[in-house]
Amino acid sequence: MQEETTPSFTDSCTISVTVNGQLYQRDVPVRLLLSDFLRHELHLTGTHVGCEHGVCGCCTVLLNGEPVRSCLMLAVQADEMPLTTIEGLAGTNSELHPIQQAFREKHGLQCGFCTPGIIMSVHAMLHENPDPTEEEIRHGLSGNLCRCTGYQHIVEAVQLAAERLREPHLEVD
Amino acid sequence: MATRWFGAPVQRTEDPRLLRGKGMFVDDIELPEMLHAAVLRSPHARARILAIDTSAARELPGVYAVYTAADLGDLLEPSPLLVPHQALTQPRTQLPLASQEVRYVGEAVALVVADSRYSAEDALDLIEVEYEPLPVVHNLEVAAAPDAPLVHEGVPDNVAAHLVQVVGEPDSIFADAPHVLKEQFYVERGAAMPMEGRGIVARWEAQSGALTCWISTQGPIPIRNGLAAMFHLPEHKVQVIAPDVGGGFGTKIMLFYPEEILVPFAAIYLGKPVKWIEDRRENFVSSNQERGQYHEVEYAFDDQGVLLAVRDTFWHDTGAYTPYGIIVPIITTCSLPGPYRLKHYASEFTVLYTNKVPVSPYRGAGRPHAVFVMERIMDAIARELHLDRLEVRSRNFIQPDEFPWDVGLVYQDGGPTKYDSGSYQEGLDKLKVLLNYEKFPQMQQEARKQGRYLGLGVGYYVEGTAIGPYEGAHIRVESDGRVFASTGVTTQGQAHYTTFAQIVADQLGVKPEDVLITTGDSQAFYWGMGTYASRAATVAGSAMHLAAVKVREKAKQVAADLFEAAPEDIELADGKVFVRDAPHRALTLGQLAISANPLRYSYGENARKLMSMHFAGPRPGPALPQERGGPGLEATEFYSPPHASFASGVHGAIVEVDATTGMVSFVKYAVVHDCGRVINPLVVEGQVHGGVAQGIGGAFYERLVYNEDGQIINASFMDYLIPTAAEIPAIVVDHVETPSPLNPLGMKGAGEAGVIPVPALFASAVDDALSPFGLRIREMPLHPRRLYELLQEARSKQ
């Protein structure tokens, strides 16, 4: 017996999303995941996909400034909303964002696959709590899996970034 | 030499790219007209395939092709057996697509290629496969049962291999030994779970007959060789690139995974690039796993706690196939003696097929099991004789003046298990300081008065690393003075772009950031194996060193001719080349590279400067004298170690066990690590930390649970628990450096180390914490419920 066909891939919808300050208008299939939209439509491949079920945190982006799993959202749900991805964190000049710089100095990454998601989570964490204890940092990181580092250098990087960001001339934007 | 980069905590050159989200992982590759593949996998652990109907799938809009075994022609043959061994009498490897029978849940049955991954997955749902389910072998016990179903017809008793190795005369020692104990130990499966799953993009260019594959792999060169053979292409027309790889941990050294054959096949026959990216669920059922072993061990010791002999018989679960031979159980055999002077040892193992995902090395590769067994033995001797656990270890250590120490076993690479160097007591002494060992009993007693159970555990290991056969390196200085170096190994987070650059920079007098490394590209370096077995930094790093020395010698020769000086008076430092004591008259390395290449045309600032310096005119004879060995500052060298070098380490931890819930938390974790000369301490510490975290996962959180039907019932990150930052403690690391005499820089491998002793340590610590109940841990991994059950059993016996 011929099965009912699944919803058509061609069902689409127009969305406007501001990503890293740039407005994009795209026709997208309604079932397209936000992570796939960012990666394969906008070619912002810094947002990674590690589990597709919302546990690993590799795909974390900021939506209205809040960290979200882009693999658990449809692109159409982000319509009219501002997004920040890892590509939008450092300015266009050559300097790294203080969080990125701290990760480099403390060797807070190895393969680098989970790193963008972790940095976006840390960005949100430090915005909420600029002076976290080690326990708060570890708790704050617990929504992101890293298989390489054992987290220790990540914790140290967050501590260093927090310290620098608390200096008056720097701010988490 | 002005600066020595070897040994310095140099920041990684690979980081800025990765931190900005500008890495290039396989799924980041977009090619024009690229198609997307999805794999239909068996839902049964064992079944006969009666019929496959792909017609509805083929008709779905967007679908380009649906392949089953019947479409593969010559390619429908078992994947090559990677590491044959005479004891592996019944090797079986997997077909790219199952033909008549499936043997594990997840085995590939069909491949769909469509215009998007979404359409391809829609089409998977439309493929009708008629299966006849067959009895399943879901664990070692069932596999070894007398009336067991057979995983492979024609493999009696499910036995793939059987190997016995004997050192000394254990039988006669056992006969006269004052103390003999016998125990069983069980280690269940776990999985590597790199954050990036596997993936491949294949592109076929019909005009040039060139196949290019980007694969998330640890071994692109062997894959290149294999694909060339399978598709009847010249090797140099097949380029395999491992771009940024999001973690491997051994699971990506396996080849060929079916997709690594199927995706190039589809790309060639459809004439369009094809991409396949493994999702996490697939990773649970189709990427190789490891660990599952059951040991029955007998051990003899004297009144002083000296271990006299060990007789270990174990069964190893290889899953449905043996693509990687019997490497893992051989490593288990060879790792069991550890740092101890074990002169009488019988090891016998049987490798059994089960209807589960195939087994190949996962970080640690057979060692955590072996160390678990041996360290449990050390603890048991201490308990039996009322001796201090660390004292028993000290009484059994191989002493520093006893190296090289031949264990007497044949190692995984066919070479001897011969320890090159080590200083085991020194490591233990450092650990005692880190743990404040002498004070612990008091701390433990005070805690017990408050109803808290603290325990201290240790785990010591010796690890064969840096095996051959060889790796190579090519180095070339370009006219702008930057140094380009390539090698056949891959990088999946180990910082090779930085550590190799440090090695090269030391020889050429430049900064590491001016040395640009390429790894994992079969066109950039033609020869080699890959990154596995804790070997890349040592074996490829040694090749880098040798090639850099050669370039340095050539640079000196060329400069000597230009400056009309003796080569031994030439120095390379700060990116410049000059006659010692005359640094004011210096060439940059780039200028020297230009003059080493006698062209009629040369370009750029360095060339102009060189011209203006008016060196001596052309010498008589050819512009490129034979003795120069070719133009430019360039060299290729290979390094082949005589045998493995043996790193070691000891971990210690203090844990707290909640006796009402079975939950365990870490109070302290300390590591003393010896990987010979350290290239970059930041990197080595990172490797150790990561290994410890994986080890803690493998001791208390991560356990793959197969049910009686051979289904993994916890195949998601919701249920298979990878430890987070909240579970992993702060880890203190200290080093012992006993240089390896086997390679020019005294290095040993460091990649797997961290994971190896953790299950042993964890069991030791839990036993110690719960000693009032007389608990003895004999299985891994634990989890809170299981620990609670064991505690209840122990309580009921009291």
The amount of beta strand of chain B, in percent, is: 15-25%
Residue runs with pLDDT of under 50 for 5 or more positions of chain B: none
Count of DSSP-assigned helices of chain B: 20
Largest sheet of chain A: 5 strands, mixed
The shape of chain B is globular
Mean pLDDT of chain A: 92
Which range does the strand content of chain A fall in? 15-25%
* Neighbour order of strands in the largest sheet of chain A: 2-1-5-3-4
By helix and strand content of chain A, what is the structural category? Answer: alpha+beta
What is the rounded distance between the termini of chain A?
Answer: 57 Å
How would you sum up the major sheet of chain B?
7 strands, mixed
Number of H- or I-type helical stretches of chain A: 5
Q: Which descriptor suits the 3D outline of chain A?
A: globular
**Helix and strand element order of chain A:** EEHEEEHHHH
3D structure, described in words:
The complex is a heterodimer of chains A (173) and B (798). By secondary structure, chain A is α+β, with helices and mostly antiparallel strands. Chain A contains 5 helices and 5 strands; from the N terminus they run E-E-H-E-E-E-H-H-H-H. In chain A, strands 2-1-5-3-4 form a 5-stranded mixed beta sheet, sandwiched between helices. In chain A, helix 2 packs across helix 5 (152-166). The radius of gyration of chain A is 17 Å and the shape is globular. The termini of chain A are far apart. Chain B has 798 residues and is α+β, with helices and mostly antiparallel strands. Chain B is 28% helix and 25% strand. Chain B contains 20 helices and 29 strands. A 7-stranded mixed beta sheet of chain B has the order 3-5-1-12-9-10-11, sandwiched between helices. The longest helix of chain B is centred in the C-terminal third of the chain and has 28 residues, at 536-563. Chain B is globular. The relative contact order of chain B is 0.12. The model of chain B has no long low-confidence stretch (mean pLDDT 96). Chains A and B meet through helix 2, helix 3, helix 4 and helix 5 of A and helix 1, helix 3 and helix 18 of B.
